């Protein structure tokens, strides 16, 4: 009978298998992956030996996770089907080096559709633009203006393909025949939201669509949260155009700050609930004021020097500075 170990015959196949059975953004798994490699990690899931850094209970829980993903036969089929997609691992030239800043929380692989060469450009040439799904006319207008100016400055627009601000950023880039990357919380073969199927297909054709989630998988609340760290890590700067006080898009800002990245925010009317979150970022000194694409370019250029996570900043402390926002989806 075939085993998981049989399927993980090298680091690449083992990482792909881990993407299928593992929980993303799991520091315990990431710690093991860094320490012993993917092949040995998969072997540990089927052994009874002690797991470094885990007691017996934690090890038992960790080993139970792969069972929820089906039989080895089913995983064999999924691995075969994965050959239809481009999969990037840290050994590939297109793998973004900045993802290593996530340390134990780095993705196991990236599933991709489109021009993966966009990932080889310096992080100072990529900017993440995010914001409210329920964007106002003001938010849409400002997003389009900033994205258009950034594309004319030969920068790559990164966003999550969601309604509102993110879709406006993607569309502005495409309208200018610029480069844009969509980071999905679902498989690259499952455009989400469904209403953006045409948009995401166009991004895959003219730019790039990536996800750490395997093909066929639907988005979940947790996957949206996990995706925030990739949006933050992949770019030199993250810009929030509009965000309510409890907007899930603020997760991306917190992740960027924890990584030592520059964060920008577009100020909005004090009477607009859609700008409460961005105005608060500015008020707390966590973001730079963004009024145009040139403001973003200055932030990106300032990040050209090697960036490492700030030693005195971490997501837990940032979250404790204010009540953690309740995630409401993108």
* Rounded average pLDDT: 88
CATH topology of the largest domain: Rossmann fold
Number of helices: 14
Distance between the termini: 43 Å
Total tally of structural domains: 2
Number of strands: 9
Which percent range fits the helix content?
40-55%
Q: Pick out the low-confidence regions.
A: 310-330
Q: Main beta sheet, described?
A: 9 strands, mixed
The run of helices and strands is HHHHHHEEEHEHEHEHEHEHEHH
What portion of the residues fall into strands of 2 or more residues? 5-15%
- How many whole angstroms does the radius of gyration measure? 20 Å
By secondary-structure content and strand pairing, the structural class works out as alpha/beta
Please state the overall shape, judged from the principal axes of the Cα atoms: globular
Q: In CATH, what is the class of the largest domain? A: Alpha Beta
CATH architecture of the largest domain: 3-Layer(aba) Sandwich
Main sheet: strand order: 1-2-6-5-4-3-7-8-9
Written account of the structure:
This protein has helices at residues 4-7, 11-21, 27-36, 38-45, 56-64, 72-81, 137-152, 165-175, 197-206, 221-233, 250-258, 276-283, 293-302, 315-321; strands spanning 86-88, 110-114, 126-130, 156-159, 180-183, 208-211, 237-240, 262-265, 288-289. It is an alpha/beta fold and 330 residues long. The chain has two domains: 4-84, no CATH class; 97-321, Rossmann fold. The protein has a nine-stranded mixed beta sheet, with helices on both faces. The longest helix has 16 residues, at 137-152. The protein is globular.
